[in-house]
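Much of our argument rests on the idea that a fold can be written as discrete symbols. Part of our work consisted of pairing the sequence of a single chain with a tokenised description of its backbone. No coordinates are needed to read the tokens, only the vocabulary itself. The record that follows shows the chain in one-letter code together with its fold in token form.
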Amino acid sequence: MYRLCVRDHFMIAHSFKGDIFGPAQRTHGATYVVDVVFQRPELDEDGLVIDIGLASETLKEVLSHLNYRNLDDEEAFKGKNTSTEFMASVIFSRLADAIGEGRMGKTAQGITRMEVKLHESHIAWASYEGDL
């Protein structure tokens, strides 16, 4: 399996519901470093997993809709705890849609699996991985 990773970051504010979250029930901020790993069993005719430029641009565009937002105010997240795990799945879905819509070019059509990993600090991360 061939793999290629692109990286970016975004900053948000949010709060959580539930005693398990302790002080994180109050509004707080997070700066996430995002790694997206694209996978395919064979390289394309140009020897690529994916066009790294288009993958980077598309990731930046997807993250721009989250960056500098208070997720508690976003209609799409009403009633949800926007945990690191949950946000990894949101970004995965939005990138999968972009691949399906052709926004990452022809090469991306060969991607069979993807992982989105959100680093919430230098000691903790969560990810969502799935087949495309």
